[in-house]
Amino acid sequence: MNTSFQWSTWRSAGLNAWRARSPREQVLLSVGGVLVALASLWGLALAPALRTWQEAPARQAQLDAQTQRMRQLQAQAQALQARRTLPRSEAVQWLQNSMTELGPEAQITLQGDRATVRVQAAPADALARWLSQARENAQALPVQAELQWVDGLWRGNWVLQLP
Questions:
Q1: H-type helices in the chain, by residue range?
Q2: This prediction's pTM
Q3: For the chain, which domains are there?
């Protein structure tokens, strides 16, 4: 009941103050109130919604690209899980047969379940392609690498873990 009394007191004081204003002041205060209300509506409701709507196509494209990449990774993971284990002899044979892709001076040395590959002048794209194919075709994983970039070509060696 006390709050009801305070509310009615404030309301009557406000109405008395409004009536005490001249008609010109009442119009100016009304216009100012409407402008403040419109600015608040724009800043709190319309502008954020408009910004979200304008950014939506770019965000959607970004999410589509991310989804596509995730599907590619999922397919790659499923392919790796479904693959049969390659016999060591086939892996070694593939590695030996593919050494020519790394240049004429490329060599491979087998030691137990590891293979050491040495190159003197391997182009970057050929090296990247060969490592990817070695992983896929021979199921050989790099475990150590010592490579140097010399005159636009790779030189050095790396060790592969065989299946």
A1: 2-20, 23-41, 47-82, 88-97, 124-137
A2: 0.51
A3: 2-81 (no CATH), 88-161 (3.30.1360)
